[in-house]
Amino acid sequence: MTTGTATDVFEEHRPVLMGVAYRMLGRVADAEDVVQDAWLRWSGADHGQVREPRGYLVRVTTRLAIDRLRQIRTRGEAYVGPWLPEPYVTDFGDTVPDAAERAVLADSVSLAVLVVMESLSPLERAVFVLREAFGYPYADIAAVLDRGEAAVRQLAGRARRHVEERRPRYEVDPAERRDLTERFLAAAAEGDLDGLMSLLAPDVRLVGDSGGKAKAPVRILETADKVGRFVIGAARKDAPGLSFRFVEVNGGFAVLALAADKPDSVLQLDVADGVVRAVYIMRNPDRLGSLAAL
Questions:
Q1: Measuring CA to CA, which residue among 145, 79, 147, 173 is closest to residue 118?
Q2: pLDDT-derived band of residue 227, with 50, 70 and 90 as boundaries?
Q3: Please, are residues 268 and 110 in contact by the beta-carbon 8 Å criterion?
Q4: What are the CA-CA distances from residue 187 to residues 61, 78, 145, 245 (Å)?
Q5: Where are the alpha helices (DSSP H) in 133-252?
Q6: CB 191 within 8 A of CB 236
Q7: How far apart are CA 134 and CA 128, in angstroms?
Q8: How many CB atoms neighbour CB 46 within 10 A?
Q9: Whose CA, among 36, 81, 116, 141, lies 20 to 30 Å from 27?
């Protein structure tokens, strides 16, 4: 295999490798580093001995992501306030024409699911990603992780139960999410507390991730009254100079706020039954860099 061909093969599989690494880590920069390390391994490999490039690359990427995740957790770095996955631009376009497959991929990268996955062990997370997001057979996952198939099945069962017990019990309809997001923004901009409250579920939660580097709640807010009053107050303070752009991140409709053409924050809502169930606000400037090119 020539250098040019090897590069073409890697680039063909890069979206899948990035998808695996991001779901494993919840951090775009770390995922990109892992994929780059996978490229270095691939460029130095004896390609004549690789029968299935995709399988080889997924195996290398998964193992590198497990190592990176263990390093992150070993460092035990303190994080100020609630943590959310780094916003990840998702636009499957024509690459995933099947609606059911698109739904699975979108769900597996959603903020709600990734937050739950953060509490899984690195091996559980790897098994869950490969099985639930990419549909890998247990035998193939066992080969990737160098584990027995029975052990992989146990890891998969444990991870699935953990996620199902803690993930939201509602489905997010894309059209409903967009409509409620637009009405949510309009009510906030107009300072219409009653109008905003009418859009919120009584037990709505607001999760703000700033890492202590921007203004955001240091704790998760709960109840419509607390969330509504916070949003109205924040809109009054932050509205001047901000512009907004609709984007798709983490498999769903979201709003990117820009200050002087630089990413300031990302807002995404989880909705069901005509009301907002959760509000996610990402404001840590260190983790919005991947959105600068939008």
A1: 79
A2: very high
A3: no
A4: 44, 35, 50, 17
A5: 138-145, 149-166, 174-190, 193-197, 224-238
A6: yes
A7: 9
A8: 7
A9: 141
pLDDT digits 0-9 by tens, 99-146: 566 666 677 888 888 999 999 999 999 999 999 989 999 999 999 999
| 20 and 139 inside one domain | yes
The pair of structure tokens assigned to 9 is 């093969």
Rounded average pLDDT over 166-176:
78
Containing 243, the helix (H) or strand (E) segment is: strand 242-249
Is 49 among the domain residues?
yes
* CA 82/CA 144 separation, integer angstroms: 33
Smallest CA-to-CA distance from 234 within 247, 250, 221 is with 221
Would you give the DSSP letter of residue 219?
S
Instruction: Tell me the pTM.
Output: 0.86
Query: How far apart are alpha carbons 152 and 146 in whole angstroms?
Result: 10
Here the CATH number for the domain that contains residue 147 is 1.20.140.160
Is the model's pLDDT at 171 over the cut of 80? Answer: no
As a whole number, mean pLDDT of residues 36-52 equals 92
Residue 113 CA to residue 84 CA, distance in Å, equals: 11
Decide: 258 and 242 in contact? Cβ < 8 Å: yes
Q: Who wins on pLDDT, 115 or 172?
A: 115
Could you give the CA distance from residue 55 to residue 272 in angstroms, rounded to a whole number?
A: 38
Burial class (CB in 10 A: 0-12, 13-18, 19+), 219: exposed
Q: According to the model, what pLDDT value does residue 184 have? A: 97
- Whether residues 162 and 184 share a domain: the answer is no
What confidence category does residue 97 fall into, taking pLDDT thresholds of 50, 70 and 90?
very low
Listed residues 166, 182, 211: the one ending a domain: 166
| Cα gap 145→50, rounded to integer Å | 17
Return the structure tokens found at 101: 């497959």
Q: Distance between CA 246 and CA 253 in Å, rounded?
A: 7
Of 131, 167, 162, 170, nearest to 147 by C-alpha is 131
pLDDT at 157: 97
